Each structure stands twice: as structure tokens, then as C-alpha cells.
Amino acid sequence: MPIHANDPSRQTWLPVPEHSDFPIQNIPFGVFLTRDDIITIGTRIGDHAIDLGALHQLGYFENIPLTDDIFLQDTLNDFISDGQKTWRLVRNRISEIFDINNETLKNNEAHKKIVLFSMDEIEMQLPVQVGDYTDFYSSKEHATNVGTMFRDPDNALMPNWLHIPVGYHGRSSTIVPSGTPIRRPQGQTLPKGEETPVFGPSRLVDFELEMAFITTDTNALGEPVSVDEAEEYIFGMVLFNDWSARDIQKWEYVPLGPFLSKNFASSISPWIVTLDALQPFRVESPKQNPEPLPYLQQKERYSYDINLEVGIATEDGSETTISNSNFKYMYWTMAQQLAHHTINGCKVNSGDMMGSGTISGPTPDSYGSMLELSWQGTKPIKLNDGSERKFIQDNDTVIMRGHCSNNEVRIGFGEVRTKLLPPFETKKKG
Amino acid sequence: MPIHANDPSRQTWLPVPEHSDFPIQNIPFGVFLTRDDIITIGTRIGDHAIDLGALHQLGYFENIPLTDDIFLQDTLNDFISDGQKTWRLVRNRISEIFDINNETLKNNEAHKKIVLFSMDEIEMQLPVQVGDYTDFYSSKEHATNVGTMFRDPDNALMPNWLHIPVGYHGRSSTIVPSGTPIRRPQGQTLPKGEETPVFGPSRLVDFELEMAFITTDTNALGEPVSVDEAEEYIFGMVLFNDWSARDIQKWEYVPLGPFLSKNFASSISPWIVTLDALQPFRVESPKQNPEPLPYLQQKERYSYDINLEVGIATEDGSETTISNSNFKYMYWTMAQQLAHHTINGCKVNSGDMMGSGTISGPTPDSYGSMLELSWQGTKPIKLNDGSERKFIQDNDTVIMRGHCSNNEVRIGFGEVRTKLLPPFETKKKG
Questions:
Q1: pLDDT at A428 over 90
Q2: Domain count for chain A
Q3: Which parts of the sequence belong to the Fumarylacetoacetase-like C-terminal domain (chains A, B) (predicted)?
Q4: Are residues A167 and A103 part of one domain?
């Protein structure tokens, strides 16, 4: 099916600010609370949010096989379950409705009143109910940096790393949308040189710059998804901040992996940008040596050229960009991750989320975590307000942004913005 | 609130076979498909399943604050969300309805026709939608056995083990109810002495004898649950078989923990036995030395005396009991596990499941996995059909059972029974 919606020459009758992440070629999907306190599924063009539930009720999706309530839901899970063919029909139709030459909605003031919202009058929600969240560890630069710091610079990568897109299960219940503040976690850490742990707030709270993809559900329990078909199961992507408490992690992670050091929160950007919208930005993936086992060999191996940046905003409101990275650096592709995840028959459901792992580039200014940027705290980062950071401080806001661009179009993810609050205080009795 | 339902002297007008796991003092909760292909929430007495949705519609739960459709659902999540007070009101009422001296339902043939099913005409379903599944590692005997085999017998326990109820996230989407067959997983393993992995079916498929508890949702993101309040958040327990592929596990698990070696399937018994029903079987927990950090110190530290057994049934139909263990051996209590899980502010939801970790007792015949029972394959187990097992073979059925008993009453979990099928075969084209 041709994806008309990607046509770079198409223009829209809605205003789109210069350098917007959301031209008519994007058409992401999200869930929002309207000014009338109703939750609906929508999309975004420029600074307008569009109520797809209302559009559907008004008949704009005629002849597309959709249930009546598909967009009148709290989450996108059922829509994602409808599959790639339906996603494309809907995205193409939205593109037609808002085409500059289509006057149907453009000239219907009554309909526009119902369908259109200004971004500042709505509240973005989690776009999916995440059944299972998996985090990979697929940036060679990140794995090498961590291995160099914590183990042996000459053998920084574990023996399995070049053979397996290493991953592990994370916590779904603490995935929150951009704008939700989180608390500095408390827990056990082992002070240097001691044998007995102490309790208290983590002193080493860090972000991890990641992206995550969201899947649909088509394999049965026990059946693998082949690597060459894997992208058909991927609905789209979001920015992902995999919050981490390094001191808790170090003490707890042997032998079963990170747990409380990660599961206090993960923050995502609220608009899911479809894999379809990203097609113009395909680029070759880094060469793999050694060649992986056959079930991980893709006929065409490609990634996406997505520029990423991380900023820290301090309480005075000033923001400092501290990293510029790119999704294209990932050693393992999303298709390889999904093929690996299901090779044992693991069932994948609609709305499942899979994180890339920290996306570090080849140069120190492209590292995807404070751990790497400040090299374990040995090289503090200067911020615009004059202060320094080794890790994230209370009341700092971490902002991640991402976009693709070429000569014709810019497709972006908006941002994921999260404030770190001080630790929870137990109320004293009496 | 007094739990009348636990009164050991109460008798029921329904037939209850001798040594049944489901006397009127049990009253577990589950979800089943009726003879009319309708999914409903129910309980069980003897060999009768009881349709709680129908009972509620007929007015039997009058004066208990329940929504009309609370039992007309696919899962128990919403009922569990209603909280401990409601669970107790409902369980006490069920106990009254089926009391031998209560003639209301007993003498109403029309109602009985709607409400009662024979166990052999229904099909048990997953009782909850599991949002997040966590697996702990809380048997000291099991952790010591594994550490002895894979690391150093003199330092079998990791330095954190006595301080932390070590746990990690598992996969929710592959939790299946008793009776669902699973497939031998395929994946990467590293042959002994080699440096390059190979692909194929796991050769070392194992069970893990565990129990799991199911939570309700009352803490907010960022707020811990205190250890002394933790049990109020626990609805009940099931038997849990944490299927494992030892060869895949060994190659993949460093540094982020087990992943594909575990997430191909976990099997549970379908009736959730409430924590309330288990109260008569409280026993002291093993002493802890060193004393854990204050947030893990319980005023009253107790476990539950639950007898567990594992059997293997072969294709000729014969079954061999290969292990007898007990839940009371667990070093860390469920309350400690839940307090630890939330100390960093991690949000717990209704229907979340937390596994105990393999429950090994102190003697070789009480070990909870083939890995330990056959001591890495060095001591094969003899089965009644004359064959031997180091690990689980294709078409073997693994059965776990559990019950509590004292002089007055026996409360059981029924069983979790799972057949291991041969690996998935990719269909050849043409």
C-alpha cells in the first residue's frame, strides 16, 4: 500500500510553525484529555491536536474498516491491534482531510470546533497500556563505555554482546508521559570499601537517552517472528528516558540484573511517530562483525537517522544542551531485537514497549548518560547557570528531543521532559 | 473484620470429597469459561465451580458495596482493586450461602441450575491480567545450591543476598494457566569450550517450583509500602512454575539477568487462594542473620506452612513425585519482598504477580528444580516408567501441587500441570 501521507510536497490548511516537529507528513498518534475532560485518541499537526474520535463519529473515516469506538478509548492498544494495513489507511486519510486543497473540513466551522484543539488546552496521556516493557542494551559505544569504566578496558564488551541483542525485562507500571514529575528513589547502596549496605536516597540519579518502539500483536505463544518480517509488527517510536540510580544498581544487580535502580520511573514522549513516517530517513546500520546467527541476519539491514539531544533545565529556567546523539548509531536494529525477543516463542502483545538501550555516539559529546558524559563523575558538566553536574540534582528537569530532517521535510518526536523531585518523606506520626 | 469463612467447624451442603483442597473454608477466586461459553468470575467448593456473576445478579451479595458487573469480567483485577475489606465481605458471604444450615440457595433448584457447575464442564482461565510480573530469589537453600554449582562453594551466596530480597522483572505476556501446553524454546547457547554460540532447541529445559502472590493497587507512584502494612496489599497466592532453559540462561544472563531463558512461559494454578484463607497456617520464618535494614524489619515475621510437591508424568500416564518442599523455607517473607519492591517508589497495580523464586528445602529430595535435584545432570532421577531424567524431556508433563493442613482443615491450591511440547518448526516454503 502506498503511503501517500509521506508525500513531501503535501501542504496543509492548518498553520504549521517553521521547524515544527509535526508537519502534515508526520501524523503521529497519541491520547489526550480534552478541554471538556474527555479522553480521546488523536493526532497532531503543527500546534493543533486533532480528536480522531470526533472525526470518526462525523464520518471522516468512511470506508475504512474500523469499529465505532476505536478512537474513543483510553489507549491506542486496540487500534494498534488492527494492524499495519489499517494504520496506513487511517494515516493516509488524515493526510487527505488536512490537505490544503481539501475544503470539506476546512470549510466546516461546526466540525472544526469539535475536532480541533490548541495544544495548550489539552493534556497528553500515556498513549498505550504497556503490557510488557523490555529494555535492550544495543549501543556498542554505550556498552563499551560502561564495560571500560566498571570492568576491563581491554575486554569492555561481554563475550555474548556481539552475538546477542542483550536485553532484559523492565517495569511497565512506572512508565510515565512527559511532564510527570518523579521522585529521587531511596534504597540500599554499599559505600566504597564497606561490607554492609546503608539506606538512603540515591546519590547518583542518572538519565539514559533511549528510544522505544511499540509493537502490535501477531505471533502466537511459541511462534517466533522472523527478522525480515519484524518491522511489520512495529507501530511506531517514542523518546524514552530510562531513569537510573547508579549506586543502587551497582549493589543490587548481581546476578539477576538491575531492578529497583531502574523501576522507579521511565519517561516517554507522548506522541507515537509511526515507523511509516520514518521511512524517508532510513540509513544503513553499522556493519556487524562477527556475522550474527542466521535468525538475526536481515536481508536489508537499516536504521533511522534520528537526531537526539538532551538538555538539563535548572530552577532559574535556563537550559543547557549536554548531549547530541543519533539513533543510527545502534549496533542492533529493532528488527533484530524483535526477532531475538521472539525466537524462543515469547508472545508479543499490542502496546508492548521495547527500549533501545542508552544511545551513545562515538564522541564524548554524544554520550547518552551522565555516567558517561561525566565519566563516573570525574569530568563534571558545566551548565549555563554556572553550576556543575556529575549526576542529576533535585529539581533539575531533564529534556530529550528528537527529529529527522532532510531537504524536504522534518519529522520530530517533540520532547520528553521530566522534573526530578526530592525523595519521598515518610510522614511522622503524632 | 472477623473472617467467619475460616471457621473450621463450618460445613457445607455441597458435597466435598475427602482430602479435597477446596472445603468451604478455602473459597478461592478464579475465572472460568462456562458450558455456555461465557466467561465469569467464580469460586470453588469441592468439585463444584460457583458462578459469582450469577449469584450477584440473583441478589446474593445484597448490602455489600459491589458494582453490578464486578464478577461479569474476564479478570479479577477490578475486584482485587476493591480492597481487603470487600474481599472479606464477599468471602464471608459465600461461606454463609453454602453453609449446611442455610437453605436459601440449597432449596432453590432454579438458582442452583444457574449458579453451579461441575468442575469437568468448565475451563479455567488466567485469573488476572498481569500488568507486571516480578520474580524473587528468596530461598537461601536454592541460592546456595546454584552458587555452589556455578561459582564457589565457599562463597555460594552473593554479597547482597542476605541484605536484599533479590528480584528481577519477568515477562507477563507468557504467564499461562494450568493445562496450557508450552513448547521447548529455541535459542543461542555456547557449547562447552567454544567461543562462538550455536542455535537450536534448548537441551536443558527445567521447571522451578515457586509460589506467587497477587497484589492490589494502593500505593501512588513514588510512595513506598511499609513492611508491616505490606500483607494488606496481598490478595492471595497461586502455584507458579517458572520454566527455565538452563543452557540459554548461562550464555545470555551476564550482565542484565535472565531473559529468553525464562520468558517463553510461566505456568500458574488457576485458583487464587486468599491470604485470609491461609491465616490458620502461619508459621515462624527462618531467623535472619544479619538483621536487615530497618525498612525490611517486620514486627511479626511469619511465613505460611504450605506443603509442595512436584511430579513428572510421562507419556504412558504414570506419574513420579520427584520433590517435596514447603513454602515455609523462604528466607525472605512476602511482606519483605513487597516492601523492598516499593521502597524506591515503584507503583504496584492490582493483578501484579510476584514469584517467590525456586523453593528448595534443606534436603536433596526437597529441591525445587531439576538443576538441583539431578545436581547439574550428575545424578539422574529415576521415574516410575523406568526412564531417567536429568532435565525435562519433550512430552513430559510437570505437575505441581500445594496444600496446607492441620487437625481441622485442609486448604489447597489444586495443581498446575503443563506439558512440554517439542520445539516450534518453521514451515518450509514450496
A1: no
A2: 2
A3: 134-418
A4: no
